[in-house]
Structures are given as C-alpha cells and as structure tokens.
Structures
1.
Amino acid sequence: MLPPQYLLDIVEDMVGKKSTRWTVPDCGLSAALRYSVQFEDNSRVFVKAATDDDTEEWLRTEHFVLSSLRESFIPHVIGWVDTPPVLISQDLSHAYWPASHGGTTWRAGDMELLLDGLKVLSSVPAPPGLQELQNRKTSIWSRIAGDPEALLRLKICPESWLEQSIDALIKAEVSLDVTGEQLVHGDVRSDNICFLDGQIVFVDWSHASRGYGRHDLATLLPTLHLEGGPAPYLVMPDGGGEAAMGCAGHIYRLSADRQMPDWLKNVFKRLIAIELQWAAQCLELDAPF
C-alpha cells in the first residue's frame, strides 16, 4: 500500500534510502497513518504520521516520551519531523504480537512477562514536562446513584445490591489519588505490546502521562482477564478504588457514546461486570451477581 507522496518523500529523505514496500500493521486502533517501511537493503523502520489535530498532539507526546527515555521496553527513535508531525522509530514487525485483527493469542509465559514489565515501567520516573494525571473532581458513582438506569439495564446487579453498595463505591472512587511522579503509559492493552528476544516492548505512547505507579496495571487487569488472564482481585486485592473508578468510567462511556458499535458495547458490559466484582471483593461487599 503506497503512502501519501509527502510522507514517502519525508521518510526517504530522512533515512537516505529508497523504500520498496509500505505495509499497514495488522493491529492497533490509532487514527494516525501507520506503516512498516522496507528499504532496498531490506532494513525497516516504523512510520507514524498525524492526520488531524488530535493525532498531532498524541504524536508529539509519543515522540517526547520515546526521545526522553532510554529503556529496553520503549522503541528507539530514528527520526522526527515536527511539521507535519511524522515519527520514525524502530520497526517491530518481526516481534511477536499477541493481538491482531484475527484475535488475541497469548503464549505460555507472555502474561508473566507483561506483568513483570509493568513493574519495571511503573518504577521509572516520568520525564519532566509530561502531563500529570488528574484526580476525578466529581463522583460518577454519585451520578449513577441519582439515575441508576444505565447500570441496571445491563442486568449485572440488582437494584437492592446497588442501594446497599453505592456509598462504599462512591467513597472508594473519590478517595483514589492518581497523582504521582511515575511514568504512565496510559493505554496498555494487548495490541499495544509485543515481545522481542524474550523482552516486552510497549508501543503507542500517545496518552503517556505522569502519575501513580499502579495506574497501568489497574486499567489493564480487567481486559487481561477477558483474554484469559487472572482475576484482578488475585493480582491487586487492595484495588477497590481502582475498580470503582474504572467501573464508573465504563458505565458512563457506555451510556454517553451513542455511536459505539455493538461489539464494543459487549466488551464494555463484560468489563463492567469484572470491575464490579473486583470492587465488591476489595471493599468486602456482597457479590453483585
């Protein structure tokens, strides 16, 4: 697949070689242009180019992180053009990617490498200047308490359980402090990681920020459980605040996004059920279902 001519010219000029093949990766949901580019000498680079104002901002964030840190779990930068934003980085098409458009396949030991990699990532101080995670100013669970239909129509929990549990869910949500000085990827999921030479590499740092060290693990665990990983409570038994906040956020998005496709609605419903169960276990509430 040929790229826009401007992008072909930028990449060939910066790398100093003629390209022979441009391939769109078989995973990822980014709105940016993305290509694995092969050159005449069979070397490769990965190219990402902005397509609108949002992807411009995200790409600048990603370049800032990749160019500021030298960690084994981060792809290295080969080139950068600021206007229009184009990021050229290490090509990882030869790595093992658990996710593709055909589904997600975890090999034996992959999840353990992922969880170990997150421990390392969360121990790295964020580079100065990275945007800080902000605590939630208002409680979404309080809004749900006032109008619980968005949750109740999912048939995940009865109204009586919600009435008994709502105060604990609100308290857990508003008590969670997400601020901090640690590096936060912000979008860890199976299509944003790969494995190369026995090590994990995290890609797509568009939503990176500075915050508390457990953020990436907490947001990953429900999705990982959907893909065959451990129940979140087994990994983070003190994650009541994270579970309550994540669950409320998914309920709100599910009710607010009228354009959400049915397949994603089903994913959100399953995530809400996992997070509600996790919150109940951590907060010592009755099981919701």
2.
Amino acid sequence: MFQATAYGDETATRMLGAYFLENEETGALSSAANELPDGSWNVELLFDEEPNAAMLAGVAETVLGHPIDFEVAPLPDLDWVAKSLEGLAPVHAGRFVVHGSHDREHVPANAIGLEIEAAQAFGTGHHATTWGCLLMIDRLFRRRTPVSMLDLGCGTGVLAIGAAKLMRRPVLATDIDPLAVRITRENAQANGVGAFVEAVTATGFGHPRFAERMPFDFVVANILARPLMALAPVMARHLAVGADVVLSGLRVEDVARVRAAYVGQGLAYVSRLERDGWATLHLRCG
C-alpha cells in the first residue's frame, strides 16, 4: 500500500480529493483533503500499487490548471482504506445518516441509518454529490412515494438503499462495474433492504430489466456530466409522466450543459443544490 501526499490551498486540495475519489481509473482507493494544525492543507491518496508521481502531477494540472508535486511513500501492511474511514464523522443528509460500523451506536433514534463500509466503489456519503442526492431523495419523498425507482450508476448502493428504506418498494440499481453491483447487493442485505434492491450490471439502458421495469417515476443518476448528457434521450424514453429525475456527479460549471440536454428532451428544470463546487439537479418529466 502506498500513500501520495500533495500540499496546496483548501480549494485545490478539495478539488483534487474529489477528482481522485470520483475517477476510479486513477487507481486511488481513497482520498481525503485535510486541514493541518498550522492552517495549511494537504490531500492524501491511497493506492494498492506505487503510483507514478509524474502521472499524479499531470492529473493535478488537468484538474487545477497547474501541476502540484506529490510525495509517494510506502505504508505498513494495514487495511488503510478502512482505517481512513474510521476518522470520518457520520454524514447527515435530511433524515439520512451515512456511517460506518464504528459509528453504529451514534445514529440518532429518529434518523435513518445507512451503514456503508469501506469498499472499492463510489458512495460513502462523504462526497458532495452523494450528499446532494440523498438530500434530494429525502425532500422529494416527503412529497410523494415513487412506485418504480431507478438508481443509475449505483456504486455502493447507498442511494438505492436509502430510497428503499423510505419507500419499502422495489428499486432497480445498476452499474457498469460488476464489483459495484456485488457491493450494492451486500450493502442492501446488511441494511435490511435486500428484498427491495435489485442490482444488475448494465451499460446505459441496455439491460432487459429496464424495459421490464419502465416507466420509472423516480430516477437518480450520480455519474458524470458527459455520460449524463449522452443518456438524456434514452432516459427520457424510460420515464413516466411526472417523473422526478435527480442528476449529480456535476461540477457547477457543468450544470448549464447538462440542464440543456434534459430540457431538450422535454424535462423541466426544478431546482439544484450546490456544495464544494459540485451540483445536484432536480428535473421533472412532463
């Protein structure tokens, strides 16, 4: 196991931490931006294999517009992914509290606990996009309970699990990564909603289960701007009239393009949430 560390201001380190967490092709198992005792900031990344420092600097230049030097060092043989999450406080998003098993006893009695352990999939609740999607789900489910829901790009399954705990109805959860699908199934069972969450490996809307479960009256997709834009026409064909659509994985600067792609398919823009430079959109069909 190796740790890569770089130093910068708060904005730069948070942006790098979010990028490495969101983009699994970088190979990072976890990332965290940290404020140090002297007020400075760093970002720490964990890797299974030794990363190339020049590659990391190149990624930083792509994200920030200028390179940052990374220090790479080996770590003792411990479960560093799990250990890194031990220091993370539970995340509150509306009625939801996302936590690890080490914080199980700290979930308030009136909250909906979502226990998500360290895993090789995106979605522990600490990223701004996961928080935004959970908060949108909480708010919209207060207005009505969906009949047929889709979580597109489910990662750890945290969004599908949260929805299933609220609605007690079936949720279709899909991801292009078979490992994420397996983790979603395991997390759904561990959270007591295995009977409600159906997880399948699928690219786009190509799996037969989409045709069998459509039309969807609630869709959440926490992926990235470019694939969201590409999926707009086919997603629109799978929606019920009046369906709520929650989109995230977007930088604030991506919002206008993604919004236009879905408005062009007949959806109406309703609202958005922003946090740490990331945005979550709510649109409605018909």
